[in-house]
Amino acid sequence: MAGASAASTLAEQGYNVKCFCYQDSPRRAHSIAAQGGINAAKNYQNDGDSAYRLFYDTIKGGDFRSREANVHRLAEVSNNIIDQCVAKGVPFAREYGGLLDNRSFGGAQVSRTFYARGQTGQQLLLGAYSGLSQQIARGSVKMYPKTEMLDLVLIDGHAKGIVVRDLTTGEISSHAGDAVLLCSGGYGNVFYLSTNARGCNVTATFRAYKRGAFFANPCFTQIHPTCIPVSGDYQSKLTLMSESLRNDGRIWAPKRKEDCGKEPSQIPDDARDYFLERKYPSYGNLAPRDISSRSAKEVCDEGRGVGPGGLGVYLDFNDAIKRLGRKTIEERYGNLFEMYQNITGENAYERPMRIYPAVHYTMGGLWVDYNLMSNIPGLHVLGEANFSDHGANRLGASALMQGLADGYFVIPYTLGNYMTSQFGKKVDPKHPAFAKTIEETKEKVQKLLDIKGNRTVDSFHRELGLIMWDYCGMARSEDGLKIAIDKIQKLRAEFWRNLKILGTPEGINMELERAGRVADFLEFGELMCRDALTRNESCGGHFRTEYQTPEGEALRNDDEYAFVSAWEYQGENQLPTLNKEPLVYEKVKLATRSYK
Amino acid sequence: MKFHLKVWRQKDAKAPGTLESYEADNIPADASFLEMLDIVNSNLTGKNIEPIQFDSDCREGICGSCSLTINGVPHGPGRGTTCQVYMRKFKDGDTITIEPFRADAFPVQRDLVVNRGAFDRVMQAGGYISERCGSAPDANSVPISKVIADEAMDAAACIGCGACAAACPNGSAMLFVSAKVTHLGLLPQGKPENGRRVLGMVRQMDEEGFGNCSNYYACEAVCPASVPAAFIGRLNREFTAASVKESIGMNV
């Protein structure tokens, strides 16, 4: 979505844009799966919202690990995004008076979330895609669907092009440009099971990292509290139920272990533990994602989880149905209830949903400055692929906001800053750097095919995912992370010895595509663990068991860790070096994050 | 569970294709259809047979990447995309035929992968509102009745998967086109371009080789987003009005 909005807006401004995506159409980017909504400080509900309040909530939600200036800008442009989307024809939900409706979302006490049924991401992406389509028709954007970026081309230290593989023909080619924008999303699939699409990957950003771009805060990952629990080892992905469900659903688990096997309707109210309401009375079921997820994990660790393997808690709509009527609940969440029934075979109008946390979003990404440019001149990074706005935890309905802010309202203003430094320096597409990078890419692809071992790509990916989930998931420890690094190194060695891919580099070969991505994940997973290991504090989604308060809350260490970790690649089998960008807060006072 | 599969295998866009038989053993009833194929593919790789190539991405029914025809029905049994079909919907021991979406405008690329670029080109021919980023008025400056906004949303829900065209005996894309024409045409901000939009999209649709609607309503029956065929009537009205205007020399 960041890519579509940036490409169309830059084209409107007169840039000639080449736009690449691995899907068969830019309309299918995974932004499409965002359900709940998009935040803006419109204050249409007259509940005292303001740009400052959105800014503060986002900084606080990120546990004071994001860059203040970037977040403030995000809050400032949030209102323009809503205007822009409505003008593009996004059918946001409306009230009977014809004005836009809002709902509440986690981590905020005002109602500032705009939504289009449970398909907000889809509608916002289609809005951006429609603008992109218009620019393609005008000839100002050339679109390359089913094309995957496999490397970045540097000329004199500047990003001047990319090397791509055509996923239909297998052809590897290069494209030259005055600047490169990466809008390639997050790396949640390093966990194998996540709410991300199958194709989501770290390859574009990781290969830029290997060319010198800093990777910032890779260990900051978000585990979303309301997902459908895992049901078996054949599973290829986890399905998210929008956080908006927490507006009306109440989360609970049985107080006693003995009740876990009982039908939920047989458990009386006083035998239920509405643990979020108990622990965080002022936010209740709308506590931020990291806190809600961890609370659910704690309950299950105590043996009070429900469903297969005891890995689940209830999300109950019984009270809401009594209060509002089934029709209202159907209107608000009908498609989500349908989806839940389809997957689990259970009817959530009659029996509470079972939910469990799952990997959902990654706050880390390539390091960028205020202009969204990485440390490599000319390389800009937008949306989930960069690190800047969400700190150690992202609040709900903020990913769409950031993706569109970056694409519609930030890069169109900041790209010029770099471009003016390049006047008169035309990129030569025949520069030897292009041919050289193409050759290197071809060799890498061939190397994967030449292993001719015995294990499938997915089996490696699944094993890596389990390591990451066990040791670098919701709770991390020094010992665990060291074990994880060791296991990943061994798995990586086996991968390069024992991978089996059939077929050729020509034509459609999806196992080959995945193998390249998994090869990157196998290196990247180690980087994540190293990042988690050096951050000796707990903040947001990064919870180190050694650093917690007596009540089990995250214990931040502002004196030593109020910085961005920006990792710098040092070469094959070399330890990366850590650069630190201090986080200086001029407007906000660092505070303990409390939702009690 | 156990299934006998007959799967369309085709090496590339030019090669002829054929149905191959495979066995799917030890399939959990809670696995999705695509997860069943993942298991089959892993077994095929073990036997040195190249895995079946098929598109999928979000695996939660919204991206529209799946392009499988299962037992003759695009997306298979039930109302949803293939990724939302679960094996418990089949009987143990069933024979299941799996082909790609079939429509003249969606050429098969390999096995179950089709090229749906035609849909993108139809969108480029008018499926947008011309608005320059930064020029929008306040979002609440034009109230839109909830009824209209809801109907626009019904139309906007189209995921662009192409099942409508694959189900249609004429290979028609009119449900897809009508969804966009309705979505943007109902909203006040889309109205200024209604005539241009419908003419552009319908002409591109014809050029891509999609057929016309002859009221089978097979499209509506398979649409995972429940887009109603009634929108096609609206498309026809808009198209007729714009064509008449154009034919008498009025600006559209």
Describe this entry's structure for a reader.
The complex is a heterodimer of chains A (596) and B (252). Chain A is built from 15 helices and 18 strands. Chain A is of the alpha+beta class and 596 residues long. Chain A folds into three domains: 2-145 and 179-220 and 363-418, FAD/NAD(P)-binding domain; 224-359, Flavocytochrome C3, Chain A, domain 1 (Alpha-Beta Complex); 451-561, Up-down Bundle (Methane Monooxygenase Hydroxylase, Chain G, domain 1). In chain A, a hairpin with a 5-residue loop joins strand 6 (158-166) and strand 7. In chain A, helix 1 (2-12) crosses helix 10 (399-419), helix 2 (51-61) packs across helix 3 and helix 12 (457-472) runs antiparallel to helix 13 (478-498). The longest helix of chain A has 25 residues, at 510-534. Chain A is globular. Chain A starts with a helix and ends in a 14-residue tail after the last strand. Chain B is built from eight helices and seven strands. A five-stranded mixed sheet of chain B has the order 2-1-5-3-4. Chain B has a two-stranded antiparallel sheet with strand order 6-7. In chain B, a hairpin with a 6-residue loop joins strand 1 (3-10) and strand 2. In chain B, 55% of the residues are buried. The model of chain B has no long low-confidence stretch (mean pLDDT 97). The chains are: A alpha+beta (596), B alpha+beta (252). The interface between A and B is large, with 81 and 77 residues.
* CATH second-level architecture of the largest domain in chain B: Orthogonal Bundle
Major sheet: arrangement of strands of chain A: 10-14-13-11-12
Q: Which of globular, elongated, flat, extended, rod-shaped describes the shape of chain A?
A: globular
Write down the CATH topology of the largest domain in chain A: FAD/NAD(P)-binding domain
Distance between the termini of chain A: 35 Å
CATH topology of the largest domain in chain B: Fumarate Reductase Iron-sulfur Protein, Chain B, domain 2
Q: What is the element string of chain B, with H for helices and E for strands? A: EEHEEEEEHHHHHHH
Write down the overall mean pLDDT of chain A: 96
